[in-house]
Specification:
heterodimer; A: 500 residues; 2 domains; B: Rossmann fold; Arc Repressor Mutant, subunit A; 3 domains
Chain lengths: 500, 387
């Protein structure tokens, strides 16, 4: 007797449909799973048998073979448990084939028959298309984001009763309203005109930002306030981010992720944890979890150089192409990179003469940052500790909401140029839609002639200048003043180029 | 006991003596003990007695165990391979300036020309390994000015002020340029960075790189402090460009004071921690020098030596040009700069202008030569010259 049940498995952030074929026939009692299962799937044999028996159904005392098709695809995770159990019950005719035909089943079983939530429910349900899907009750809210025909159940008995039409599908508990985590306000940053402006320009133009400064100069404080300046995610972006977060098993409030994510991995991060990969599961890394949001690398100089260089390609292309012998995955990773570091090992290098690091120590520290990575930062500012007067009294700067409004207007101007933000403008588009005034041209020319600016740097300054101009007036011209500010916003690189 | 000079001048040292002296220097002994061992005896004999365990200075035979047969030949081969000559205290070729010193190294390894150690008057230009940009520039210019006028520069080849001074001395292309001397604390072939190796090779072309250690001998932290006495002994004046309050350059100062060698220091900003040590030296009576011409004047006064060329062509510190003709924005940014070196943040807060106005004003001031930026900091020219 044969039963075929639909289910899905996860690879990277992509769901793939899986046919679970269960064959029960006469022979010595056994239970075999074939079709490239990983350890979690192979272990499902014991979970499924216990769950079926605990739910009050008999276990066939015959030979049970489960095949997971397509057999070339590697199956991982415990999400196939429910499909295997339903398949066994169908093959032993405890469920009629008409009850299960055309329905997908995803969920992990407990030994008592309860249904446990699984990671990656959004992409997996998505992979099954418009077919009705049965998922654990805890996953219903997430699954409904991508499919209208989602049924939730708390345990295997409920699934069987509902399939036999002995009872209606249990009502899903209404999803709690998605909680938008409160973002700290920019007005709390006292003083720091340069840092505040750099954060604003980074948010408006999508320019990667490097914050340099001694300990206590507010680098982390500024970086954590950046996500609050970004506009909410579009519907398409929100779905994609939710899919990635679901695949990574991030706890969600049950709804769509509507705010740009903010990820701040510790500097001990490995290459796999940052860009994604791994042998079996091809898990998305921090760069993908920050997709459409902010990836904040605090203490950039303490990250392993090889780990940082692995970020270069994703920063350029917005996607991590993970290739392994056993599988491949394209993980989206369009991030705004914000990094903070001390100018030298003792941290005081930005203050003239206060640094006691030897040249060799400084050179060693700066060598940890490869030139190509440094080149990807359009903005680099050197911060200093705020004055005492600014900390205790001083005028509070603009609040997040005021700055966010300017950022949104500037981003709107970028969309009229056919890009999401100015950082994505090609050099041809720059020439076409952001002409330089004669005064601005001569300012840049002087910098180019003295060697203070490279050809690649020129285009980066140009894009930043456009963003600065957009923040002033989204439709106004780009003047010499905007170019001068763009140059000032990358002058922090000078503190690092003491590579003698 | 006869004087060491007499002992060796009667019967000149042969190659085997030099090899044994080099081998003894490779044993890691303190300079004082090495000197005691070699005092008044032929290195070959000392080596033989140590090896046989019958030397009175080595009663427990610890040293004898390290005197492996064949070591002299090995060390000599390495010296020859590295192009080093071995000078032994008391023998011919040993620099006279050092021979009279109470703490003279018993064995010296010289890359380049050992004869230059005696000829011209010398100034030791030393300082911290983590100088400010200004200090580095002052050291470079001082090295260049001294060498161009025929005064030799002695320094320690540490990164920072030492390297800057020696690079300056090697940068000048005049015909009167004097040979430089680098005194290193490691073996001459185990310098730390590529920059130091390059500089050492350049110095050895006309001058000398000297060390108390033979090639391949491991160094130790204390070696860097004790080699400073060699610099002090070789110099007619010791100039400290920048030093922290407890800097290593002060070892050289103490060594110089013990030898009645004049000490001079370059004054620095009270805000610059790298000038704390030098400012303190000035308070306690060191000569005050600002640049190469001051150092030359001091050197010629102390040694009654006449510099080969006057430094009349040395450019004075550029004074800020007239600020008339600046627009009010630029003028207010220029005023805000004052005598300080400021980040953009500080300038925005001082002037109350917007970031873009300040940035533009600075660009224009830079074009007019009224402001320079260095490491992200802005200042009037002369306050913080770019290297």
């Amino acid at each position: 007797m044969l039963a075929t049940i639909w289910s899905a498995t996860l690879q990277g952030v992509q769901g793939h449909g899986v046919d679970v074929e269960v064959h029960v026939c006469a022979g010595l009692p056994s239970f075999t799973v074939v079709g490239l299962p990983d350890t979690a799937v192979r272990e499902s044999r014991d979970r499924v048998r216990a769950a079926v028996l605990s739910s009050g159904f008999p276990w066939p005392s015959s030979r049970v073979t489960v095949n997971l098709a397509p057999s070339s695809l590697r199956k991982s995770g415990a999400g196939l448990d429910l499909a295997v159990a339903v398949g066994v019950l169908t093959a032993t005719q405890l469920l009629a084939e008409t009850h299960v035909a055309g329905t997908g089943f995803i969920g992990e079983l407990g030994l008592d028959g309860s249904l446990r939530p699984v990671t990656g429910i959004v992409p997996m349900v998505d992979a099954l298309g418009p077919a009705p899907v049965v998922v654990p009750m805890a996953c219903v809210a997430e699954a409904r984001l991508v499919s209208p025909h989602v049924r939730g159940a708390r345990n295997l008995s409920e699934v069987v009763c509902a399939l036999r039409r002995q009872a209606p599908w249990p009502e899903a508990t209404p999803a709690p309203a998605p909680q938008v985590p409160a973002c700290p306000d920019l007005a709390e940053v006292r003083g720091q005109p340069l840092g505040r402006r750099a954060v604003e320009v980074a948010a408006a133009g999508g320019h990667h930002l490097l914050l340099l400064g001694p300990p206590g100069s507010g680098k982390t404080m500024l970086a954590t306030r950046l996500p609050g300046l970004l506009p909410p995610l579009s519907r398409a972006d929100a779905l994609e981010v939710t899919r990635v977060h679901s695949a990574a098993g991030l706890p969600s409030a049950g709804g769509l992720v509507t705010r740009p994510p903010f990820r701040a991995p510790h500097h001990g991060a490995t290459e796999v944890s940052l860009v994604g990969g791994g042998t079996a599961w091809l898990r998305p890394g921090e760069a993908s979890l920050a997709h459409c949001g902010v990836l904040f690398l605090d203490e950039l100089g303490e990250f392993a150089p090889a780990v940082l260089d692995a970020l270069r390609q994703p920063l350029e292309e917005g996607v991590v192409r993970v290739r392994r012998a056993r599988g491949a995955a394209d993980l989206p990773a369009r991030v705004l990179l914000v990094a903070a570091m001390n100018p030298c090992p003792c941290g005081e290098g930005a203050v003239r003469g206060a640094c006691r690091c030897s040249d060799a120590a400084r050179a060693r520290y700066e060598r940890r940052l490869s030139g190509p990575l440094l080149d990807r930062f359009d903005l680099a500012v050197s911060l200093s500790r705020p004055e005492v007067g600014d900390l205790l009294g001083g005028v509070a700067g603009e609040s997040t909401s005021v700055v966010a409004a300017r950022v949104e207007a500037a981003r709107g101007a970028a969309t009229t140029r056919g890009v999401r933000c100015n950082a994505e403008l090609s050099s041809a588009a720059l020439r076409a839609c952001c002409p330089l005034s004669p005064a601005a041209t001569s300012l840049l020319e002087r910098r180019l002639l003295t060697g203070a600016l490279s050809a690649r740097g020129l285009h980066r300054v140009w894009r930043v200048a456009r963003t600065v101009a957009d923040l002033d007036d989204p439709h106004g011209p780009m003047t010499e003043q905007h170019v001068a500010e763009a140059l000032a916003l990358r002058a922090g690189r000078d503190t690092l180029t003491t590579r003698r | 006991m006869p004087a060491p000079e007499a002992a060796h001048e009667d019967s000149p040292l042969v190659d085997e003596d030099l090899a044994c002296a080099a081998a003894l220097a490779s044993l890691g002994l303190s300079p004082a003990r090495l000197r005691r061992l070699l005092l008044g005896a032929r290195p070959r004999e000392v080596w033989g007695r140590l090896g046989s365990g019958s030397h009175p200075d080595d009663p427990d035979g610890r040293l004898a165990a390290r005197c492996r047969p064949g070591l002299p030949e090995h060390v000599e081969r390495r010296c020859r391979g590295a192009g080093l000559s071995t000078l032994v205290l008391g023998a011919a070729g040993y620099p006279r300036r050092l021979a009279d010193d109470p703490e003279a190294p018993a064995v010296l390894f010289v890359r380049g020309d050992g004869g230059v150690l005696d000829d011209v008057p010398r100034a030791a230009v030393v300082g911290t390994r983590s100088p400010s940009e200004l200090g580095r520039r002052v050291a470079f210019d001082m090295g260049a000015a001294l060498a161009a006028s025929g005064a030799g520069v002695v320094s320690g080849l540490a990164l920072g002020i030492d390297c800057a001074a020696l690079s300056g001395a090697r940068s000048t292309a005049r015909s009167t340029v004097a040979p430089s001397v680098a005194v290193v604390g490691t073996a001459p072939d185990t310098l730390g960075t590529a920059e130091q190796r390059r500089l050492a090779a350049s110095i050895a072309e006309t001058g000398a790189v000297i060390s108390e250690l033979p090639p391949g001998a491991p160094s130790a932290r204390w070696r860097f402090a004790v080699r400073n006495r060699v610099m002090a002994a070789l110099a007619d004046v010791v100039v400290v460009v920048e030093s922290h309050a407890e800097g290593g350059a002060l070892h050289t100062v103490r060594a110089a004071r013990r030898r009645q060698v004049a000490v001079a220091a370059v004054p620095g900003s009270l805000r610059n921690p790298a000038s704390e040590g030098t400012n303190a030296l000035l308070v306690h009576g060191a000569f005050c020098v600002r640049d190469g011409s001051d150092a030359l004047a001091l050197l010629s006064r102390l040694t009654r030596w006449v510099p080969a060329s006057s430094l009349s062509d040395a450019s004075p510190v550029a004074s800020p040009g007239p600020t008339d003709g600046l627009d009010p924005l630029e003028a207010s940014v220029f005023d805000a700069l004052g005598g300080d070196s400021l980040g953009l943040d500080a300038l925005v807060l001082r002037t109350g202008l917007s970031l873009s106005s300040v940035a533009l004003a600075l660009e224009r001031l830079a074009d007019a030569g009224l402001a320079v930026s260095e490491g992200g900091f802005w200042a009037r020219p002369g306050v913080a010259p770019r290297p």
